[in-house]
Amino acid sequence: MSKRRLSKQQIERVQRRRRADSHSAETAVADDHLGPESEGLVLGYLGKQVDVEDLASGAVVRCHMRANLGLLAAGDKVLWRSVVGSAPGADEAGVVTALFPRQSELHRPDAFGKLKLVAANVSRMVITLAPEPQAHANLIDRYLVVAETLGLEPLLLVNKQDLLQADHPLLALLDAYQALGYDALRVSARCGLGMDDLRQRLASGTSVFVGQSGVGKSSIIQALLPDEKIRIGELSEQELKGRHTTTHARLYHFPFGGDCIDSPGIREFGLWHLTPEQVAAGFREFRDAVGLCRFRDCSHGREPGCGLQAAVAAGQISQARFDSYRQIIASLDAVTMQDSP
Predict the structure, then answer these.
(1) Is there a domain that residue 197 lies in?
(2) Measured between alpha carbons, how far is 93 from 107 in angstroms, rounded to an integer?
(3) Does residue 203 share a domain with residue 305?
(4) How many Å separate Cα 230 from the centre of its chain?
(5) Are the C-beta atoms of 83 and 94 separated by less than 8 Å?
(6) Quick check: is 20 in a domain?
(7) Which of 118, 135, 235, 274 could form a disulfide with 278 if both were Cys (CB 3.0 to 4.6 A apart)?
(8) Are residue 43 and residue 80 in the same domain, yes or no?
(9) Are residues 258 and 295 part of one domain?
(10) 329, 312 Cβ separation under 8 angstroms
(11) In this structure, are 252 and 304 located in the same domain?
């Protein structure tokens, strides 16, 4: 895939704009007009501003960011200072002055090789599936690789259980992942089936909901948060692909404990920012077999003495998962990664 290139003049214009924006945000409020520092939690990122929840009072404040902080994301823990004399709900009610170290960072690479920070300090990835749109094993594997790489607890969540027939291929796919030790749950946000079990699983930590558009992520979150106004889209009847309804990741507090982040709906999940070794480690049943390869730099292709190939031949690793792994590896060279702005 060819990478879009900017002209020298375009690059200079972008850099000037960034410097101007940073200077504007940095100098918009003088320090002597700011109150004392308080700890806060970023609920949502809104371009040049973020919504910050004050951890002491629970108040939500719209804040600018100091230029040296870089990009913030839902789930970030920060220090912020209020603007003295600002009215409630004002556009410049506070300024984020510091960022606490992150426990985890969830990025979404785009087609141009740039990493987009989606969420921070996540402990669980809820991979949401449904009978429609059709679930693809390779997409599920991509999510699982990210979860394994970041040390997140993965949960395979099948929505629209009421539409599942006994012979639906999604059920066989779910069985295969459960055989690997992955937790799975079937629910229906519309009918309420399985929702109590889901509440128990989400009652601690911070969960991020990911999955194809149209699988019902926002509908599930709406059912869990009946007092919030979650934007919910409809499934395209012609293409059976969901329309994107969430444009920015947003953090919500569950009334039964735990938090969640509703991420932008995505149909693809590139892993171009990972190395082949990280991808292989993201397939949990590969880990022992990789150490049995004859050559340390084995690409797990046609080399003699490949531990993965031997495990596949012996039935210890499924051919479907190995093919999915090879497909991901082949995609790593499609895009040259760039640093995020």
Answers:
(1) yes
(2) 29
(3) no
(4) 18
(5) yes
(6) no
(7) 274
(8) yes
(9) no
(10) no
(11) no
Tally of domains in the chain: 3
CATH number of the domain within which 111 lies: 3.40.50.300
**Residue 199 burial (CB < 10 Å; 0-12/13-18/19+)?**
middle
CA 79 vs. chain centroid, Å, equals 24
How many alpha carbons lie under 13 Å from residue 297 in its C-beta half-sphere?
0
Q: What are the structure tokens assigned to 51, written together?
A: 């919504």
* Residue 250 to residue 260: CA distance in whole angstroms: 8
Q: At what angle do helices 137-150 and 169-179 cross, to 10 degrees?
A: 30
Place of tokens 């027939």: 165
* Cis peptide bond prior to 154, omega within 30° of 0: no
In DSSP notation, 173-229 reads HHHHHHHTT-EEEE--TTT-TTHHHHHHHTSSSEEEEE--TTS-HHHHHHHH-TTS-
The first and second tokens of residue 299, run together, are 């690409």
Two tokens, residue 99 = 């960022």
Please tell me the pTM assigned to this model.
Answer: 0.80
Q: What is the pLDDT of residue 116?
A: 81
Q: How confident is the model at residue 244 (pLDDT cuts 50, 70, 90)?
A: very low
The whole-angstrom separation of Cα 130 and Cα 202 is 19
In angstroms, rounded to a whole number, what is the distance separating the alpha carbons of residues 197 and 157?
11
Domain that holds residue 321: 276-331
Q: Does residue 266 or residue 7 have the better pLDDT?
A: 7
Q: What are the structure tokens assigned to 175, written together?
A: 């069985």
Could you tell me which residue, 271 or 77, shows the higher pLDDT?
A: 77
Residue-wise pLDDT tens digits, 271-320 = 888 899 999 999 999 999 998 999 988 989 888 999 999 999 999 999 99
Q: Which of 152, 145, 189, 163 is closest to 278 using CA atoms?
A: 145
| pLDDT surpasses 90 at 107 | no
